Amino acid sequence: MKLFIDDANIEAIKRLCDLYPIDGVTTNPSILSKQNRNPEEVLKEIREIIGEDGILFAQAIPTDAEGMVKDAEAIVRVLGKNTVVKIPCIPEGFKAIRILKQKGIPTCGTVVYTPMQAYLAAKAGASYVAPYVNRIDNMGYDGIYVTKQIHDILVNNHMDCGVLAASFKNSQQVLELCEYGVYSSTCAPDVIDGFVKNLAIDGAVNDFISDFNKLGQDKTMKDYFE
Ligand code: E4P
Q1: C-alpha span between 93 and 88 (Å, rounded)
Q2: Is ligand 1 within 6 A of the CB of residue 82?
Q3: pLDDT digits (tens, 9 = 90+) for 105-164
Q4: With a threshold of 0.90, does the pTM exceed it?
Q5: 119 CA to middle of ligand 1, Å?
């Protein structure tokens, strides 16, 4: 499963990319607005951090196909290769995805709450489809189940499109989809940190250090291997 950071905070992205094997960064208009800065500047800084091989997602703002296509062209012109344009899965969005496919601009069908939205986006030519796990849960449905349904639809219909599972509140939700083999997930920084945030892990590491210190205070392997 590919793992993306769902955030636009530069310091958080730098820290997470330094520590973890991250495949790229996803943003949406709400995430960008939280930075209270020019979105082009923010996205260019993110591109610098993740490099040209990192995958960067930015969303088109208009709700008509023509406007979405214009936004998409501007986004990829500035952010370069390995940039994916998120297009909301509304009727005009499917039209925009088809046009962008013909132009060779990769897209992610986003704002996915139903499996058939994902099916239409994939059929129109999207490279990714993004179901909102936690938001679906909050509506009283099962976001994990819907995401698994979407994964199965893509696999069983041999569609050239992968799930980008989004909107998580905890690592258990991500784990279930990782186990199921979904193509990718995008998580807020606190959810990624939660993968390894555990007192038992910290305790085990501290025990190793204090035991080793009995051989010689604050020594590491290199002190003995000289
Ligand atoms: C990703 O495509 C979505 O924009 C994002 O993950 C939504 O997350 P939220 O429900 O935490 O806002």
Answers
A1: 6
A2: no
A3: 999 999 999 999 999 999 999 999 999 999 999 999 999 999 999 999 999 999 999 999
A4: yes
A5: 19
